[in-house]
Structure formats: C-alpha cells, structure tokens
C-alpha cells in the first residue's frame, strides 16, 4: 500500500505563486510515475503535470511555462511549483502515484486564486 499526503495549498492573488508538496510513504519506488491532477469540466480529473523516473515530464497546455514538477527521490516527495497563478487554476489538486496497473491518490489540497 501507498499513502500520499499533499500540502501547500492556500489562497493567493492572481499572479502569485504556490508550491505544492506530496509526500509518499509505503511501497514507493523511484520507477513509479508521480503526478498532479485537478478536476476539469467533463472529466473526473485532468493531468496537470507528471514526471517519470527518467525525469521525463508532461504538462497540461494550460500550465506550460507556469508550473514545474520536480521530485526528491530521497524523500519520496513530488513538488509542483506554480507561478503566475490565474483564477482558472482554482481547484483541488490531487497527487497520484502509478504503480503498475494500480493508481493511488492523495486526499487533495485546495488552491484558490482570487482575481
């Protein structure tokens, strides 16, 4: 089993920055894919960014150039640095780790961007 705990969310004005953290515990390996998701219209959750063990990253088009995903393998923690935040970034952000065919999710952290 894997447990994920997100932190770092909050209220920020448009143009501001936040850094989200997701600490993983349990059976975690550097080869596991980790990423961040948020709800989207018509979808349960959409990919915001993910990063594999080879440091390959994927970003949603809407966050490219503003969000950066990074990972500390020693701490089993993945980060999402968010700059130039926009009101449309307001959402609950969920961390996910993919282990083979299994997905494990965190409880989410709220990000609210005021205009």
Describe this entry's structure for a reader.
- This protein is mainly β and 115 residues long.
- The protein contains no helices and 11 strands.
- The protein has strands spanning 2-7, 10-13, 18-26, 33-40, 43-51, 57-59, 67-72, 77-82, 91-99, 102-105, 109-114.
- Strands 2, 4, 5, 6, 9, 10 and 11 form a 7-stranded mixed β-sheet that branches.
- A hairpin with a 2-residue loop joins strand 4 and strand 5.
- The model has no long low-confidence stretch (mean pLDDT 94).
Summarize, please.
The protein is an all-beta fold.
Q: Number of helical segments? A: 0
What global shape is seen?
globular
Q: Which residues sit in consecutive blocks of at least 5 with pLDDT less than 50?
A: none
Major sheet summary line:
7 strands, mixed
Instruction: Sketch the topology as an H/E string, one letter per element.
Output: EEEEEEEEEEE
The chain-level structural class is mainly beta
Q: Please give the alpha-carbon distance between the first and last residues.
A: 40 Å
- Work out the helicity level: under 10%
Q: Approximately what portion of the residues adopt beta-strand conformation?
A: over 45%
DSSP, total strands: 11
Rounded Rg: 13 Å
pLDDT averaged residue by residue: 94
């Amino acid at each position: 089993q894997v447990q994920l705990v997100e932190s770092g969310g909050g209220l920020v004005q448009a143009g501001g920055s936040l850094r989200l953290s997701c600490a993983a515990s349990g059976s975690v390996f550097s080869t596991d894919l980790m990423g961040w998701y948020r709800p989207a219209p018509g979808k349960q959750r959409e990919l915001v960014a993910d990063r594999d063990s080879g440091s390959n990253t994927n970003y949603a088009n809407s966050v490219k150039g503003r969000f950066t995903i990074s990972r500390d393998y020693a701490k089993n923690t993945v980060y999402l640095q968010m700059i130039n935040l926009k009101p449309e970034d307001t959402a609950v952000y969920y961390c996910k780790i993919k282990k083979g065919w299994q997905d494990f999710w965190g409880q989410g952290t709220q990000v609210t961007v005021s205009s």
